[in-house]
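--- STAGE predict ---
source: upstream dedup step, 1 unique chain passed
mode: sequence only
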Amino acid sequence: MKQCKVCGKGSILRGARKKVRSKYNPTPKKRKYPNLQQTKLSSGKKILACTKCVKTIKNAAVSVAKKKKINI
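--- STAGE serialize ---
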């Protein structure tokens, strides 16, 4: 199953609504997946993480680098 390794965010099932000539047309449910990206951690390991976690990981790495005054 497609799932974020950091926060555990996975797919959800939601209903789709379609209007046809001003009438409600019930349609089957659709599965929505999170935006997963392959990311390399500082340890060199590759994981699938959602974009929210990728931003968090990147910002944490930048703040640590600023504290240690290291160029990334």
